[in-house]
Amino acid sequence: MSLTDGAIQRMFSMSGSSDDPSFLPSVQILHLKKIPQNGGADDRWKVVLSDGNRFLSGMCATQLNIKVNSGEIAQFGIINVNEFLVNTLPSGQKIVIVLRCELVQNPGSRIGNPVDITKAGNVGSAQAQPSGGVGGGAQPMYGKVESAGNPYGGSGGGSNPYGSRGNSGGMGMSGQGSSNPVIRTNASSQSFTPISGLNMYSNRWVIRAKITNKSEIRTWSNAKGEGSLFSVVVLDSSGTDVKCTFFKEAVDKFYNLLEEGRVYTFSGGRLKVANMQYNTCKSQFEITFDQNSEIHLQDDAEDIQESYDFVKIAALSEMEPSGFVDILAVVKHVADPAVIVSKKSGKEMTKCELTIQDDSGADVRLTVWGDLAANAQTKFANLPIVAFKRARISDYGGRSLSGSGCSVNPTIPQANQLRQWWADNGSNTQARSLSSAGGGARGADPFEQRKTVSSIKEEQLGYNEKPDWLSFKATITFLKKDKAGDEGAWYTACFNSGDPCKNMFKATQTSDGFFHCDKCQQTNEKCVRRFIFSGTVADDTSTSWVSVFNEQAENMFNGVKADELYEKLAEGDRDSYDSTFAKASCTEWIIKCKVKQEHVGDESRVKTSIVSLTPIDYAAESRNLLAALGV
Question: With the C-alpha atoms ordered 140, 142, 144, 148, is the resulting torsion angle positive or negative?
Fold first, then answer.
């Protein structure tokens, strides 16, 4: 296996593998030395890399420790460097940080007679000058040696790229880096680091970026304490964005000073690896700022423009859920904002659902949250063109999206083309909806997406990790109106209409005739009865048992509530109770169902629950049938 000719010279001239991802050099490890760390931190390893003609000093990233400790990375081993960074120390020296690599082979001895790249004399005057430790004189590369010659062959000297222990600007023992590749310099000669060039081995950086999204202030509380936080997403001229979070005192200092759409310089933040499950930015890092960070407003924002990689809505049906896409579309419908309670935090959240459409012949439901949802009726009024950056794909109810950062009527060519299409004839185009109903308040799927009752078994619905959803046209053939040991087909719910119960959680009657709720720990004289029963539905393919809950039962019974039927039974009017169920039998509906496997004790079963009932519009149904037949 030969080494890559000129690899060290090329690495020396780069800022990292991001400059040319196709460059994957094969180099030899000439030297490997552990640098113990204090305070329980991970050990660091110095490394010297060679291409047979030149060598360059550097460090192994801590994620490579496991390979070093196992012996996979060892002296004289030949490795393919898959990812690296080049840092410049305050003294002007450059060192390489190996982030990812793989072993090719280990010949057991040095290849060639390489010389120090900084002494080679052909790498430019700035780098070719000797740069060593304190005092400017050449220092031994690894501790004191008797000879100033090159211990790896050739005639080059051996300077210490890490400086002495007293040099706080180097990486060496402290593990701290310094400057990074410069993207531009302003009138005051301030150097800026591109967001794409940020790395864990440098903390002396200043980024210049535009705020593209700003969250509201949120509070948190746990065993360690409580406080507040907010976050922003910033974008620089390299086209990379990063999430920045502010905690406690930094919230008070910076929240009112930062505005969406303005450009700032940021410094004094702390990097951490991003949790990509919750982070939609391109950068692999997140930044945390405190009250000691420095942020300054910049006047010029013309050079920072949002870049997009738009995907057509029709293509979403072929894409995997949990991914992210850029979407450009027309907002053709804005639903009323709704407040829901988060299952994880128990806190209220505001959401609003938009229906968006593009020129691919499809529309999709997109949910926005928080302040954006609360102001959605105004922000998305009058059928605007919107560009959403990295909206998350979900398989909830077919295909749906969830987004936050968006631009309304963006000044980009694609938006002008879509606006012209909509004005010409797009507004009259019949779009195929990718989003079906996902909850009790939603309607049935479009005609072309309907299935049959037999699909529940034929397609083995309900056996996935998430629930399956389907719509079909069917007739109610049986309703189980009697329950053993109970007066009717309902349960007694908490009388508290506010949080957290909202008349939904079960209340148990006590010995004194009152009703106690374990959810809110309140006892009330009254309760609210809510329907819950089972039945069967059938079409020409099959019959299935289904569960029916309160909202769907009231729809089925033309608005009759469980408390009303309870009063009838209490008055001895059993006929009214029976006739209400009898009238609902043998009626035909478009039924939306959720199918999910449940575990009861040691047994598992597939449960089909009705989540919506839609009366049949026979005229529209006839037109759909004729269209399906091509008539």
Answer: negative
